[in-house]
Design brief:
Helices cover 38% and strands 21% of the residues. With 575 residues, it is α/β, with parallel strands linked by helices.
Length: 575
């Protein structure tokens, strides 16, 4: 009998027959994993393991509208026009706003930056902002990480003699705004071959074009903004492949050398060791840097994060960092409370449903997306969490791989005030009078979509290995896959028939499970394994149990000593 706690199904990817190995120095296990991920020849593998900045960063003028954008900015510069940047309140939008503002300033334009209040204004451009721009005699708006769904707002800007340049990366709806120019890789005939850029990646292409047109003698300085491009790219969970991989790979190096006082103070307050001797990885961005930047917009206003990144006074940077830290702690507490509340609904009202939705007047708008993500992950169902206002409700959706949530929402758009997003995450605003009809129709759409699909959780395993395979050579080879992230997940391994030699409960409230596992091949090998937050799930585990285990491989360094550590994902206990 085999018992498992987390995943009902483990799926091991089939080995691929490798006809020719042009890379004999590459560990055979690593070669297999790369082949399974579509990297099946030496050129692809070399490009993946050794990203080349010059080759990996594509020409920004591949965008069909980029020359048009440059010409309009040239006119704004020569005529000394007032220019506005319309941003977004998450880490992707904030970093986008900073790099566009910095670059425009370098070419002689002093733009204002408008980041909407998430609670009061919601996502994307709005008519209140357009009116404010009119009063300030703005002649050109550049949107970053938003705009592709802002039909009415763009039309209003046009009526008031304001040109709009949209830079966005979200799903392109059937009808698009009549903007002066649009830079979005998903746009039909955009001309750009890589579709997966984050909002900050699209902004970076505009910045790169600006350097080429207006600052060709300073083009080397362009690399110094990659710290922010990497943060926004990782934070927005776009696939870390191809150009995104190159951006993040080099951006992490720049982040370790960042000259930004605000970021350095953020590291200190967050107790992050990041410098040239302690290179950051994508996990540090995902779990420690991005949440703090996002916390500003979620709990108060994203201007705090924007101002911190731009701050050049150390005392003020310290103060802003402490403010962000307080926001982040409040965000963690509020999210946990909201998730607990919605979990009760999910377990009762939606037990037999394929779609979970919750609407509440007291749901904090800043964290509904986080709550939807947690519930979706926990119950493996598309989930919506909306804040109900006096006349309208707005909120966020998170989905599962089997459902493209933005396409599902689009089929019900007649009920919506506005919407936007990606295949796995989206946001909507809907009049309260249309709420019931919207959710009824969307539920039918999702049920039809899932009717013949198996949505039981599956744990994808890259390779089964044996105790003899697990050594420092393999562990060091895995580092060549970094940076890990969406689309380039950390390799997952299976090892069978290990025996539990020792069990410890460690960490705050003993939530983490530390195991020492004996090899099954007669060798004296004992592997140290850590299972974060696994203590409760495996409270029945005992000494001498035989287990199959799924894990990531890491190297743990402490006081100059190195050891291989297994990061446990799941166990099956053999009884």
């Amino acid at each position: 009998m085999i018992w498992d706690f987390y995943f009902m199904n483990w799926k091991i990817k089939e080995d691929i027959k490798i006809e020719k190995n042009d890379l004999p120095d590459l560990h055979p296990v690593i070669l297999q994993i790369l082949s399974k991920r579509g990297l099946d020849d030496s050129q692809k593998i070399n490009e993946f393991i050794f990203p080349d900045y010059e080759k990996g960063i594509l020409d920004p003028f591949l965008f069909s509208d980029m020359e048009k954008v440059m010409e309009r900015i040239r006119i704004a510069k020569e005529n000394k026009e007032a220019v506005a940047i319309f941003g977004d309140y998450d880490a992707d939008g904030v970093t986008s706003s900073v790099i566009i503002k910095e670059t425009l300033e370098k070419i002689g334009i002093s733009p204002i930056v408008y980041i909407p209040d998430k609670k009061l204004e919601g996502y994307g451009m709005n008519l209140k902002a357009i009116q404010e721009f009119k009063e300030k005699n703005i002649k050109l708006i550049l949107t970053v990480d938003c705009g592709i769904t802002n039909l009415e707002e763009t039309e209003k800007a046009n009526e008031n003699g304001i040109d709009v340049i949209i830079t966005d990366h979200h799903h392109v709806p059937e009808k698009i705004p009549k903007a002066y120019a649009i830079i979005n890789p998903h746009l039909e005939n955009s001309g750009y071959p890589f579709l997966e850029l984050a909002g900050v990646g699209v902004a970076f292409k505009v910045v790169e074009a600006l350097y080429r047109k207006f600052l060709p003698d300073k083009i080397e300085q362009l690399k110094w903004i990659l710290d922010l491009v990497a943060i926004g790219t990782v934070a927005d969970c776009v696939p870390l492949i191809k150009e995104n991989r190159t951006i993040v790979k080099f951006g992490l190096i720049v982040l370790s050398k960042t000259r930004r006082l605000g970021m350095l103070e953020l590291f200190k307050v967050a107790r992050l060791e990041i410098d040239e001797n302690n290179l950051p990885d994508s996990r540090k961005i995902s779990f420690q840097i991005a949440p703090r930047i996002n916390a500003a917009g979620r709990m108060d206003h994203a201007n705090t994060a924007f101002n911190l990144i731009k701050e050049e006074n150390q005392v003020q940077a310290r103060s802003l960092s402490l403010e962000l830290e307080g926001n982040n702690q409040a965000r963690q507490k509020a999210t946990a409370q909201l998730v607990d509340e919605i979990r009760v609904l999910a377990e009762n009202m939606f037990k037999d449903k394929k779609f979970i939705f919750a609407v509440g007047e007291h749901f904090p708008i800043g964290i509904v997306g986080l709550a939807a993500g947690r519930i979706s992950d926990e119950f493996n169902k598309p989930t919506a969490v909306l804040n109900k206002g006096e006349k309208e409700s707005q909120g966020s959706f998170r989905s599962i791989p089997q459902v493209n949530i933005i396409e599902s929402i689009e089929k019900c758009k007649k009920y919506l005030v506005k919407y936007g997003g990606h295949s796995q995450a989206a946001g909507v605003t809907v009049k309260n009078e249309n709420l019931n009809n919207f959710f009824e129709e969307l539920e039918k759409v999702i049920e039809d979509e899932l009717e013949s699909k198996d949505i039981s959780p599956v744990l994808e395993i890259d390779a089964e290995i044996f105790p003899k395979d697990l050594d420092f050579e393999l562990a060091e080879s895995i580092k060549k896959f970094e940076p890990f992230g969406e689309g380039n997940e950390e390799p997952v391994f299976l090892m069978k028939n290990l025996m539990v030699d020792n069990i410890k409960k460690v960490g705050n409230k003993e939530k983490h499970l530390k195991l020492f596992l004996k090899a099954n091949d007669g060798t004296p090998k004992v592997f140290e394994a850590i299972g974060f937050n696994l203590t409760n799930g495996f409270s029945h585990l005992k000494l001498n149990d035989k287990i199959d285990t799924v894990f990531n491989i890491s190297i743990d360094s402490w006081n100059g000593n190195k050891k291989i550590q297994l990061k446990l994902i799941d166990l099956k206990i053999k009884i």
